[in-house]
Task: inverse folding
């Protein structure tokens, strides 16, 4: 009798231990506050980068890189997983189209990460001041992004960081226009 109780107890501990290793189970509603916070963090990071482009004398490579890293960490796979189910969910502005157009949404999320990574790379290359290489030139053609096709690291490394930044903002705009409910 005592031995069977010990086995039961050990079995119970194993089940509890293994279940704590499993992925947490969320519903879309559980993720809404996290998604909203991620969007606020992305917005604040983009604003910080924008401010530095507007006034290059405020450029701080570490702050620029940290802002790019924030956007990178909250985009790509992270944002895709956060919108994997129960869209729309209570308290969310996300449309059900995200699930119906999964590939399009995933491409935009991955593009957002690629632009943020390009901005982070620019900060590492330009640790002193914001150089003219980081800035767009008057009359420079715009290409790539949500209306183009090539957002590879090689391509993004060959264009000014400011161009990558504008393409990143276009990606946000396209995603929100397509996958976010409009409120009157």
Result:
């Amino acid at each position: 009798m005592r031995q069977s109780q010990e086995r039961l107890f050990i079995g119970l501990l194993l089940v509890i231990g293994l279940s704590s290793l499993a992925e947490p189970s969320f519903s879309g509603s559980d993720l809404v506050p996290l998604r909203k916070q991620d969007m606020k963090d992305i917005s604040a990071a983009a604003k910080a980068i924008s401010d530095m482009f507007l006034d290059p004398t405020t450029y701080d490579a570490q702050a620029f890189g940290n802002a790019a890293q924030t956007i990178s960490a909250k985009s790509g796979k992270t944002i895709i997983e956060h919108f994997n189910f129960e869209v729309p969910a209570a308290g969310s502005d996300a449309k059900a189209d995200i699930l119906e157009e999964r590939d399009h949404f995933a491409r935009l999320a991955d593009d957002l990460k690629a632009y943020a990574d390009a901005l982070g790379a620019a900060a590492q290359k330009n640790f002193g001041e914001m150089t003219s290489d980081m800035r767009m030139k008057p009359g420079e053609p715009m290409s790539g992004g949500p209306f183009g096709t090539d957002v590879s690291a090689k391509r993004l490394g060959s264009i000014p960081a400011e161009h990558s930044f504008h393409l990143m903002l276009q990606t946000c705009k396209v995603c929100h226009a397509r996958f976010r409910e409009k409120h009157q």
